[in-house]
């Protein structure tokens, strides 16, 4: 394979990752901003947060299995087209009239449902696009693109809100997905070729899904880590769902200040990305995940106790860095101990279970904020999440090594799971 083609593949891969991810990050600012402008209601912001996150729960456990049955290429193209069409419809409504709130709820659900499927399949397709020896570089580029979009996404959203307005911003987001359609086209041959072989598999979707479920349930270290992530995501859901409301309503700040907070979080994520490999040399994977969850709670606690913008930036940075450290460690931990034949299904179930806390905590937060301040809600959530992790850290659970987890995995494969 010549050097020019390698450069072309990696360049297209970076563009295919960066453009839809930056569109996602801008959308995450644009939609709550729009809901606030139309309703000035924390309740409706919480409802939209719930509606947009539910698809990740419903679709995640089956997307990986679907990818084994149908063409990666077709799934990616269809989901991109759905996102483009949904966003274009929102833009059309905003430019010509004021859309009913139920229309935004419906389109938000559709757009995020297509996005959930797109990213599961996109990640599953990475080993198809690149050779085994290229995967480290490819995954590093993927994580770097994700972190970079966190750093600049809110800045771009704030700039576009100020320069072209929220109405035309959705038009820009829509065409980002339209451009991505053309970036995926060069990969059609390799993606289609793989799935001709996968179609020979005879297991049904239900059977394949339950294999991943059984594996996670009987692998106690993996199961406990998933529960801890579930607890952590309750705090994350409360934080993210009410951040715009905190900035605009409680503190009376605007897009620029929100941008500063998001940039601080993005820079912290990038730093965590750099140092997490060194931390894994000092701590077991399990211990590092527990520590990360504690610091996640500390970051939320800081944002609940203080109103100074600089301190809010520090709290958000601590929380974001801890989330990245946990996610990288957790992903690596699963890749080390879970057989490749089960990894997709395990990942799908893990994402479904963990993400289930996200929308419901955001929805409940929208209701609670009508009774208490966002700061008090952040404080209570942070304290409870830290307390929930302490028993795991004080036990011998934190000392489980990757090798011991691998031994448990082998035993489960022999006794419980047929691949």
TrEMBL record:
Source organism, top-level taxon: Bacteria
GO terms assigned for molecular function: transmembrane transporter activity
Cellular component terms (Gene Ontology): plasma membrane
Subcellular location: Cell membrane
Bilayer topology term: Multi-pass membrane protein
Transmembrane feature ranges: 12-36, 42-63, 75-95, 101-121, 167-187, 222-247, 259-276, 288-305, 352-371, 377-394
Residue ranges occupied by any Major facilitator superfamily (MFS) profile domain in the UniProt entry: 9-400
Any matching Pfam family: MFS_3
Main location per the UniProt record: membrane
PROSITE patterns named among the record's database cross-references: MFS
Keyword vocabulary terms for this entry: Cell membrane, Membrane, Transmembrane, Transmembrane helix, Transport
Name under which the protein is recorded: MFS transporter
Organism: Bacillus glycinifermentans
Lineage: Bacteria, Bacillati, Bacillota, Bacilli, Bacillales
């Amino acid at each position: 394979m010549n050097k020019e083609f390698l450069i072309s593949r990696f360049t297209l891969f970076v563009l295919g990752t960066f453009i839809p991810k930056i569109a996602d990050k801008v959308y995450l600012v644009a939609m709550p901003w729009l809901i606030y402008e139309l309703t000035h209601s924390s309740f409706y912001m919480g409802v939209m947060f719930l509606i947009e996150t539910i698809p990740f729960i419903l679709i995640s456990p089956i997307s990986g299995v679907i990818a084994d049955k149908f063409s990666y290429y077709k799934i990616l193209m269809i989901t991109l087209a759905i996102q483009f069409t949904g966003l274009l419809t929102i833009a059309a409504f905003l430019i010509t009239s004021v859309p009913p709130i139920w229309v935004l709820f419906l389109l938000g659900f559709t757009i995020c449902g297509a996005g959930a499927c797109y990213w599961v399949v996109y990640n599953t397709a990475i080993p198809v696009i690149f050779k085994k020896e290229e995967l480290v570089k490819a995954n590093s580029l993927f994580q770097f693109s994700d972190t970079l979009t966190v750093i600049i996404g809110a800045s771009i959203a704030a700039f576009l809100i100020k320069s072209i307005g929220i109405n035309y911003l959705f038009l820009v987001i829509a065409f980002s997905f339209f451009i991505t359609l053309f970036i995926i086209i060069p990969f059609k041959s390799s993606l289609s070729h793989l799935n001709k072989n996968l179609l020979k598999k005879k297991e049904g979707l239900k059977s394949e899904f339950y294999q991943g479920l059984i594996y996670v349930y009987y692998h106690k270290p993996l199961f406990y880590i998933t529960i801890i992530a579930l607890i952590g995501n309750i705090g994350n859901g409360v934080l993210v769902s009410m951040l715009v409301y905190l900035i605009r309503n409680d503190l009376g700040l605007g897009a620029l200040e929100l941008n500063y907070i998001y940039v601080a979080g993005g820079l912290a994520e990038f730093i965590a990305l750099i140092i997490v490999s060194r931390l894994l040399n000092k701590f077991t994977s399990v211990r590092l995940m527990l520590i990360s969850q504690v610091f996640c709670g500390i970051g939320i606690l800081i944002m609940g106790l203080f109103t100074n913008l600089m301190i809010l930036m520090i709290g958000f940075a601590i929380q974001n860095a801890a989330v990245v450290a946990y996610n990288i460690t957790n992903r690596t931990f699963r890749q080390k101990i879970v057989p490749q034949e089960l990894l997709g299904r395990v990942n799908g179930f893990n994402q479904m279970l963990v993400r289930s806390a996200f929308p419901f905590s955001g929805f409940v937060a929208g209701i609670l904020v009508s009774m208490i301040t966002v700061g008090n809600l952040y404080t209570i959530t942070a304290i409870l999440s830290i307390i929930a992790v302490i028993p795991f850290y004080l036990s011998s659970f934190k000392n489980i090594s990757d090798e011991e987890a691998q031994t448990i995995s082998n035993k489960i494969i022999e006794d419980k799971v047929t691949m």
